[in-house]
Amino acid sequence: MPKYKVNRGLTVPQARAVLKAARDHRLYALYVLALCLGLRRGELLGLRWADVDLEAGKLEVVQSLQRVAGRLQFVRPKTSDSERTVPLPPICVEALREHRRKQFAERSNRWEEWTEHGLVFPSRCGTPMEPDNLRRSWGAIREAAGLGEMRFHDLRHTCVTLLLNLGVPPQVVRDIVGHSDIEVTMTIYAHASLDDKRIALRKLGDALG
Question: Which UniProt keywords apply (predicted)?
Fold first, then answer.
């Protein structure tokens, strides 16, 4: 089982700061999906419009963009649990609708160099996006939001933690984010909720003091 660093999720104010910092960025919708749905980086970069149904409000996670033997390739998600259907809340539907309009304009402006791959989050010329480019984008947004050394993957952990904090049952959270084992879901939560434990124990100490 993977080992997770302690306290790697964002608070609600920090998550809002990310969305505010990303608002005018061409990948704004990607950050909305990362925070709201907990999609992995490869799942976001591998997402196709054919996998998205805005009318029904859902998307299918069926492939991931990964570097294999030095080349970017589309591969099946890493486990059968990673292949999943995820409902889209209104914030995601609205962000994707706006993103689709902007992408159409971008494609029209760059038609001579555009190579259509049907991707939701391609490069500026339609091809699969280099993960390093997303890393650079995240670096700028992270800095604008005042987040220090937060990793892009921590947006996924944030989704898990915030859903559990809202009282969503762990098995539902596991199915949303595509964890293979509910222990992974709860390990992230146990680590991320250290501050909650501190507050609880302070209350107990106050009650006994």
Answer: DNA recombination
d(CA 40, CA 55): 23
Q: Which pair of tokens denotes residue 18?
A: 């990310």
From the number of C-beta atoms within 10 Å of its C-beta (0-12, 13-18, 19+), residue 146 rates as exposed
CA distance 127 to 45: 10
Examine residue 112 and state whether it is found in any structural domain, yes or no.
yes
Distance separating alpha carbons of residues 112 and 120, to the nearest angstrom: 19
Catalytic site positions: 40, 78, 156, 179, 189
Beta carbons within 8 Å of 201's beta carbon, 6+ residues apart: none
Give the Cα separation of 42 and 36 in Å (integer).
16
User: What phi-psi label fits residue 170: left (phi over 0), alpha (psi between -120 and 50 degrees) or beta?
Assistant: alpha
Interval 47-103: pLDDT, tens: 999 999 999 999 999 999 999 888 999 999 877 778 999 999 999 999 999 999 999
pTM here is 0.87
Flag whether 4 is in a domain. Answer: no
Residue 19 lies in a domain: yes
Q: Is residue 134 part of a domain?
A: yes
What's the CATH number where 171 sits?
1.10.443.10
- In which residue are the tokens 């220090």 written? 148
- Pure H helices in the chain: 12-22, 28-37, 41-46, 90-109, 131-144, 154-165, 170-177, 182-192, 194-208
- Pairing outcome for strands 58-61 and 64-68: unpaired
